[in-house]
Amino acid sequence: MVRSLTIVDRIAAPAAELRVLAVLFVTALTAALSQVSFPLPFTPVPFTLQPMVVLLGGAALGARLGATSQILYLMLGVTGLPVFAHAPELPQGILRLIGPSGGYLMAYPLAALVTGWLAERGLDRQLLSSVVAMAAGLGVVFGGGALWLAKDIGLPAALAVGVYPFLLVDVLKIAASAIVLPVTWRWLRP
Question: Which range of residues forms the domain containing residue 61?
Answer without folding.
Answer: 7-188
